[in-house]
Design goal:
InterPro entries: ADH_Fe/GldA, ADH_Fe_C, ADH_Fe_CS, BDH-like. The protein has 388 residues and is an alpha/beta fold. The chain is built from 15 helices and eight strands. Bound molecules: 5,6-dihydroxy-NADP and zinc ion. 5,6-dihydroxy-NADP binds next to α2, α5, β6, α7 and α11.
Length: 388
């Protein structure tokens, strides 16, 4: 494995009753002027908004609000949040929602302390040197944003969706109560599963020598996602399934299973280009792209795909070549997506071939992408074309 430094300071509160017992104490550690950031209203419909308001009012907290954070959060919304932080002298940002709300809050936290436009940081033209403290209450198991420092913001004017972060944007604390995901609709539950699975794949397919523990940890998370998604879809109030998926989402992207690995991340870069233009759900785009990426790269290291078939999907490898097992692994991945009802083609989102060239160029704007296999513009174009 590679040499590495691991750092993750987020305090995690997992399970039922943690918000009631510990939210006030965590929030007031940072002050009493709090910017509550949330999305399009799901937290109002399921009662979480009222709960948070009551707890914080009792603790003497003054709440300011930024609502309406979009899925694929927009830079314009981030700017609004930064303005509130400045005008209201905010002490802490509290993000209540899915990955989009958390990512928007991270951008606001960095932007409030950045001398210039926070978009510089996402364009790799600037670096954060500080951020306002941020806490989160997660309502959707998917991104892992609750325990990492990254976030993804869309500049809708320029049709760019870029990731960014800093050591200052780890949430100070995150509350993950699986009951808050009971109301996540079927499609978003599917997208969430596809996203966390994709994070595992991004780690699993890498060029780093000798990483047996990482391999088995990642396999365990993939297996657990595959085993529990259907149960959450069949019964959205299945606590055990929701809890397990939530824990998988956190583990898939908090750095714990991927230390010392050069993960691939090409599929994420490609998906972000699709979302940037067509505003599709991130997990849906990944479900479409990943099998095509696997077809495109399987010959780089068929053994890696073979272990996915045998160790995760329980395929009997006896008498089969790695190349045969690689094809079986890809078929198993496709079958899982099909079973849970994930999209399989760009056409499922009415996306045709007219912007493939633009998406391929933009995906490699900072250079070739991917580590398992380096992809140039032609590779990306081929993957997108195969995804139609
Ligand atoms: O806006 P509201 O009304 O809250 O509704 C949301 C939204 O419409 C709804 N939802 C969330 N929790 C709910 C709920 N509806 C009912 N009950 C609940 N408990 O779900 C919809 C989608 O929410 P969103 O936050 O967009 O989903 P997700 O968590 O999948 O986040 C996607 C965003 O995260 C980025 C993606 O690119 C995308 O922009 N990512 C962030 C990462 C990170 N920070 O580490 C890594 C990922 O790879 C990803 O790129
Ligand atoms: Zn993702």
């Amino acid at each position: 494995m590679n040499s590495f430094r691991f750092y993750n300071p987020t305090a995690l509160y997992y399970g039922k009753g943690q918000i009631e017992s510990h939210l006030a104490e965590e929030v007031t550690r940072y002050g009493k002027r709090v910017l509550l950031v949330y999305g399009g209203g799901s937290i109002k419909r399921n009662g979480l908004y009222d709960k948070v308001q009551h707890i914080l009012a009792d603790a003497g907290v003054t709440l300011f609000e930024l609502s309406g954070v979009e899925p694929n959060p927009r830079l314009t919304t981030v700017h609004k949040g930064i303005d509130i932080c400045h005008s209201e002298n905010i002490d802490l940002i509290l993000a209540v929602g899915g990955g989009s709300v958390l990512d928007c809050a991270k951008a606001i936290a960095m932007g409030a302390k950045y001398d210039g436009d926070v978009w510089d940081i996402y364009q790799r033209r600037g670096q954060a040197t500080d951020a306002l403290p941020l806490g989160t209450i997660l309502t959707l198991a998917a991104t892992g944003s609750e325990m990492n420092a990254g976030g993804v913001i869309t500049n809708w004017e320029t049709k760019e969706k870029l990731g960014g972060g800093s050591p200052y944007t780890f949430p100070k604390f995150s509350f993950c109560d699986p009951e808050n995901t009971y109301t996540v609709p079927q499609d978003q539950t599917v997208y969430g599963a596809c996203d966390m699975l994709a994070h595992c794949f991004e780690h699993y397919f890498h060029p780093t020598h000798h990483t047996p523990l990482q391999q088995h940890l990642i396999e365990a998370v993939i297996k657990t996602i595959v085993e529990h998604t259907k149960a959450a879809l069949d019964n959205p109030h299945d606590y055990d399934a929701r809890e397990t998926l939530m824990y998988c989402s956190t583990m898939a992207l908090n750095g714990m299973i991927s230390m010392g690995i050069n993960g691939d991340w090409a599929c994420h870069a490609i998906e972000h280009e699709i979302s940037a233009i067509y505003d599709i759900p991130h997990g849906g785009g990944l479900a479409i792209i990943f099998p095509q990426w696997m077809e495109h790269t399987k010959n780089v290291n068929p053994t890696r795909f073979a272990t996915l078939a045998t160790n995760v999907f329980g395929v009997d490898g006896a008498g089969k070549t790695d190349a045969e097992l690689a094809d079986i692994a890809i078929a198993k991945v496709r079958a899982f997506y099909q079973e849970i009802g994930a999209p399989q083609h760009l056409a499922d989102y009415q996306i045709g071939d007219d912007q493939l060239e633009r998406m391929a160029s933009q995906a490699v704007r900072f250079g070739e992408i991917g580590n398992f296999k380096k992809l140039n513009k032609d590779d990306v174009f081929a993957i997108l074309q195969a995804s139609l």
